[in-house]
Automatic annotation (TrEMBL):
Residues 20-140 form the MARVEL domain. It is found in: Membrane. May play a role in cell differentiation in the intestinal epithelium. It is a multi-pass membrane protein. It comes from Nothobranchius korthausae. This is Proteolipid protein 2. Its main location: membrane. The chain crosses the membrane at residues 27-46, 52-70, 90-108, 114-130. PANTHER family: MARVEL-CONTAINING POTENTIAL LIPID RAFT-ASSOCIATED PROTEIN (PTHR22776), PROTEOLIPID PROTEIN 2 (PTHR22776:SF4). Keywords: Membrane, Transmembrane, Transmembrane helix. One of its GO terms (cellular component) is membrane. The lineage of its organism: Eukaryota, Metazoa, Chordata, Craniata, Vertebrata. It comes from the Eukaryota.
Amino acid sequence: MADTSGTSPDANLLETMKSYVKTQKGFILAAEILLGFIIMICYLASHFGGYSGVAICEMVFAIIFFVVFMNELDKRFHVIHWVWSDMFRASVGCLLYLITSLVCVIRVTGDGAHIAAGVFGFFAGIIYAYDSYTIYLQLRSSAQQTAAPSNDRV
């Protein structure tokens, strides 16, 4: 049976992705994915590709959270506290990128791709730190809303 709705599911998915990337959280996650891909390429082009695991893991986690938040699966599956999980992901990513970037830049080996990965890693660490900060503000505002004192006196 032919699809008579006029729009294909692929077009709907593309429109959903375009509209989600325009949000603040979507833009941050897209930047994390893009930087993770660039860093992974730099590490793999380097003679010392040992730190590529950090870039691969963080990029995969960012893709997973991008898909979850884009499709609003966080509102359907309440088994996982998505905001705290995202906070943990962003905080760990910030620390790992900053540590590996410091190691790559301090240990100058003359390998340009390795140094480039370190520099891009600093940028990724800053973006992950900003993501952690925005999630912290979101957690703090939701905690203040739920713990608002009542003015009723007995």
